[in-house]
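Extended Data, panel c. Modelled sequence:
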Amino acid sequence: MFVIVFTYHAPLETIDKLRDAHYANPHGVFAQGLARLAGPLEPRTGGVVIAEGERSALEAALASDPFVTNGVATVEIHQFRPVWSAGQGPGNGSSPADRMNNHC
């Protein structure tokens, strides 16, 4: 699983003009089914995408993103290994701290 962080380097007016193309890009993370969650940072200095897939597929999809190809944003890809989710509450045999100590 990956956290993708976009950092804007252009006025929001420019970002907003490219937003539809960003989401509709046929080679991008959304159309390729790689994105699981996405949204802007607050304040709007960039955005975050939670994604699944092969790193090479993510890199290719992000290289084609209109924010990137137009030079209005840079992107960072951070891989992580989930060890806890909200559905893993008390009574499942181990605590979040135990799972994190065993996996982080």
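The chain has four helices and four strands. This feature is highlighted in the accompanying rendering.
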